[in-house]
Amino acid sequence: MLKFFKNQWQQRDRQRAKAKTQHPDMLQFLGAHPPSSSTSALASRYLVLDLEMTGLDAKVDSILSAGWVLIEQGQVLLSTAQHHYVQQQQASVNLDQSAPIHNIHHKHLASGIALEAVLGALLRDLQDHILVVHHAPLDRAFLDKACLSEYGVRLYTPVIDTLQVERKKLLIHGTLEGQSLRLNDCRQRYNLPNYKAHNAVIDAIATAELWLAQLASTQTQPHTKPVPVSYFLS
């Protein structure tokens, strides 16, 4: 019941946002019907996203790169993967703390594309998919800030957080205490290989594989009733 009301609130929020923005990319996104939360999670379509930023505070830090990949019919579609550096003026962004982590330097940003173009490409792919991220509050804060800056409205879209999915599973099994919820540590619990972290598109693919493994673990019996995607929404 709570999921139903949350879905209704999101629909109202999308309608209000549609009245507040004039940008064609956001209007097209808001005009499309989001995927139904009652659809089987196995049958739903997903866009799996990762962002690299200058830091963890959306109020003062900036998006440096974005990577995403689509999941359809239970498969990661590598041909749909996108990776974009966000164009930044060297004087406007400090990379001293973040560059050693994600190896993004000013030369990468100088050859990047405008934030508006990155968001436009993202919205076009996202409009009939459910957003999946690992640690949703962080990425959502930066996405909301970016959308408010470019479109005057936040990003209203259903989200699945693979970190919270894993946390919930461990909690149910009584094994949460002492367990790491970092992306690679979560992957290891499903015998998935380690990937080099802090590249946006590689992390997006790694998160997509984790999500499919998490989904498979909920459907362990062939005659188990399909779990609706609403069960996983944040």
TrEMBL record:
<protein>
    <submittedName>
        <fullName>DNA polymerase-3 subunit epsilon</fullName>
    </submittedName>
</protein>
<dbReference type="GO" id="GO:0003676">
    <property type="term" value="F:nucleic acid binding"/>
</dbReference>
<dbReference type="InterPro" id="IPR036397">
    <property type="entry name" value="RNaseH_sf"/>
</dbReference>
<keyword id="KW-0269">Exonuclease</keyword>
<keyword id="KW-0378">Hydrolase</keyword>
<dbReference type="Pfam" id="PF00929">
    <property type="entry name" value="RNase_T"/>
</dbReference>
<feature type="domain" description="Exonuclease">
    <location>
        <begin position="45"/>
        <end position="220"/>
    </location>
</feature>
<dbReference type="InterPro" id="IPR013520">
    <property type="entry name" value="Ribonucl_H"/>
</dbReference>
<keyword id="KW-0540">Nuclease</keyword>
<dbReference type="GO" id="GO:0008408">
    <property type="term" value="F:3'-5' exonuclease activity"/>
</dbReference>
<dbReference type="InterPro" id="IPR012337">
    <property type="entry name" value="RNaseH-like_sf"/>
</dbReference>
<dbReference type="GO" id="GO:0006259">
    <property type="term" value="P:DNA metabolic process"/>
</dbReference>
<dbReference type="GO" id="GO:0005829">
    <property type="term" value="C:cytosol"/>
</dbReference>
